[in-house]
Amino acid sequence: MADEFYNNSWNGEQQLTETVAEIAPNRTLFVLQLTDQPPLKPEAVHGLKDPEMLFNHYRPEMTVKIENEKEEMVSETFRFRNLEDFAPGQLSEQSACLSGIRSRQQELLLLLKALKTDPALLQTLANAEKRKALHAAVKKMIAFLEPYS
């Protein structure tokens, strides 16, 4: 359920009321603290009319630990300036670790597509001798490129 606030007029004064609405079944609501800092005390902030103003006022950010490809824990700080910052692509743009993992994933997906659609490669992999020769060639290529990485 989501809280929605509406202004109602009562004796000439505006009154804030709370209502409850159902969330569509194809939606997910995440509620979490978006900063490492504990709140000092509740504060009433007036005039925040849209999410952009809300993000500009609070400037939420969170530091998290992420396991990189070498299985090391790396601290990364994510800053949220609008709702789009929560998209997986936007999160990976803020993180060197996640962008490396994402680019590796895209490379592997391209390789998988090539494996499924390239007839010459499929024939090479089907033949044991050709597969061993390809494996040896790839190993040599990796050894050659290793000093440059």
3D structure, described in words:
With 149 residues, the protein is of the alpha+beta class. Helices cover 42% and strands 21% of the residues. It contains five helices and four strands; from the N terminus they run E-E-H-E-E-H-H-H-H. A hairpin with a 2-residue loop joins strand 1 and strand 2 (13-21). Helix 2 (88-94) crosses helix 3 (96-117). The radius of gyration is 26 Å and the shape is elongated.
Keywords:
single chain, alpha+beta, two-stranded antiparallel ribbon, disordered N terminus
On the 0-100 scale, what is the average pLDDT? 80
Helix content: 40-55%
Strand content: 15-25%
Task: Tell me the number of helical segments per DSSP (H or I, 4 or more residues long).
Answer: 5
Order of helices and strands: EEHEEHHHH
Strands ordered across the widest β-sheet: 1-2
Strand-helix topology:
Layout (H helix, E strand, L loop, with lengths): L1 E9 L2 E9 L29 H8 L2 E7 L5 E7 L8 H7 L1 H22 L1 H8 L1 H18 L4
Antiparallel strand pairs: 1-2, 3-4
Helix pairs in contact: 2-3
Please outline what is shown here.
The chain has helices at 51-58, 88-94, 96-117, 119-126, 128-145; strands at residues 2-10, 13-21, 61-67, 73-79. By secondary structure, it is α+β, with helices and mostly antiparallel strands.
